[in-house]
Design brief:
mainly beta, 3% helix, 8-stranded antiparallel beta sheet
């Protein structure tokens, strides 16, 4: 059921078709019924590139008093997923432009935050700025051009600014590792439904889930939650969050372990709050305890707010969580192993690698281990911060050996052999861990990597999983 607010612009008197300067006849305008309610449709009548749909607002809207604009969009001009152009026009003719994604078929809900750090300038405007608008223009760029094609808009409404922290409306997401089944429309994880029969499924021995979320603007994320209906101890073991400003350069920002060791199926969540993640794009990587475990989950949510300039500067300055504080590298507290492929500093007390440098470039700030010892019923989890070094030495040129023990893990010493001979240019040192026990051990190495690329301290990070 559409609300009065969603219907206020669904009046054909407010809309017109745009020829794009190329078509002889403008698209015809009609009010149609659709799966999302009453919609305005522009139907192409004559050939010509860059045709579109224009909304002439019955009264000006001051974007300085709006938090976002949202609508549903559907089109038949483009056979795949693509980007639309949404132009917010000032009385002077200049304005702002956003480029939200649309689906190859069916309807897509679009949410555009009024954030000048995300919106682009249109026309002669030198830099983005919010102001009063009189018109909104919708275009599929050159795709809307042939008779028989159409573009439809429904449920257009403006939302008030949100000052307090709250749920973030995700603009869209994609699977970097496709699930075995479920969620072909890429809508299940953000529809607010947690249902056993409506979950994303990854079969045994398949790739681990890896999903990129577009938040639509630069947000300060304070809380993350993944919900599932499954056996907690036999489903997701941990979640790694990566953040990015542009969807290209990534940094590892947060490790969230699954602390629920339950052995019965139930609805449960893996969550973290009091986060301080500054990002427009967030990659969610879900790890598994064992490769022969299938994975399933139903919902992923982010909570936060559009940051002020001061909040953004503070969050960017924090970079990311390196873990417990360790001394600054020095020969009293660390071994330094050097070779033609770089140098590493290894803490003498717990064996954690804190710096990997190559050709005077810092490639990794910390390389650490996480362990899970499991007999299938009562897993024991620990990490290298509680390791105790028994010995450390340079075993051969470029190869070092550190032997540790961990009070949480029975069964003796943990030899860790590392090599500075990188397998691929600029990869972190190879660090292999062996553990002799009748239990099943998973060891995960997390690397935090910093490469300064802009004033915000943008960087990326990777995590390598080793099972033995």
């Amino acid at each position: 059921m559409q609300t009065e607010t969603q219907l206020q612009y669904m009046n054909t008197e407010y809309w017109s078709g745009s020829t794009g300067g190329n078509a002889r006849v403008a698209p015809s305008i009609s009010l149609v019924d659709s799966p999302v309610g009453k919609a305005i449709r522009a139907s192409i009548e004559s050939p010509g590139d860059y045709q579109g749909l224009n909304l002439h607002l019955p009264e000006k809207i001051d974007l300085r008093k709006a938090g976002a604009v949202s609508f549903d969009i559907e089109q038949t001009a483009y056979k795949g997923n693509g980007q639309a152009a949404v132009m917010l026009i000032f009385p002077t003719g200049s304005g702002l432009i956003a480029t939200p994604e649309f689906n190859a078929s069916g309807w897509k809900h679009v949410h555009i935050p009024m954030d000048v750090r995300t919106l682009k300038s249109l026309g002669s405007q030198s830099s983005p700025a919010l102001g009063e608008i009189k018109e909104i223009r919708f275009s599929l760029f050159s795709a809307l051009k042939s008779p028989g094609q159409h573009l439809s808009i429904a449920n257009l409404e403006f939302h008030p600014p949100v000052i307090e922290e709250g749920p973030v409306t995700v603009a869209g997401y994609r699977y970097n590792a496709a699930p075995t089944s479920g969620d072909n429309s890429c809508t299940w994880l953000t529809d607010g439904k947690v249902d056993r029969e409506r979950q994303v499924f990854f079969r045994e021995y398949s790739d681990e889930p890896d999903i990129t979320f577009d938040l639509g603007a630069l947000y300060l994320i304070r809380k993350f939650e993944l919900e599932a209906v499954a056996i907690p101890s036999q489903n997701i073991s941990e979640i790694l969050l990566y953040t990015s400003f542009d969807g290209k350069d990534w940094k590892m920002a947060k490790h969230i372990p699954n602390l629920d060791a339950g052995t019965e199926e139930k609805q449960y969540s893996i969550a973290a709050d009091q986060l301080n993640l500054l990002a427009r794009y967030i990659r969610v990587h879900a790890g598994r305890n064992r490769t022969d475990f299938p994975l399933r989950f139903a919902e992923i949510t982010f909570s936060g707010k559009l940051p002020t300039d001061a909040e953004m500067a503070m969050a960017a300055a924090q970079q990311y969580d390196l873990g417990p504080e360790l001394p600054t590298p020095n020969e009293a507290n660390y071994w330094k192993f050097s070779g033609t492929d770089g140098a590493v500093w290894i803490h003498r007390q717990n064996g954690i690698l804190v710096r990997y440098e190559k050709q005077e470039r810092l490639l990794a700030e910390r390389l650490f281990s996480r362990y899970e010892l499991s007999d299938g019923k009562n897993p024991v989890k620990a990490d290298a911060y509680s390791d105790q070094v028994l010995s450390g030495k340079l075993e051969s040129p470029g190869v070092f050996l550190v032997t540790t023990t961990n009070p949480a893990l029975p069964g003796g010493a943990i030899p860790k052999s590392g090599s500075l001979r990188d397998r691929v240019n600029n990869t972190p040192p190879f660090f292999f861990c062996k553990y002799s026990t009748c239990f099943f051990l998973l060891s995960c190495y997390g690397m935090l990597k910093r490469i300064y690329k802009r004033s915000y301290g943008n960087g990326d990070g990777t995590t390598t999983r080793v099972s033995k």
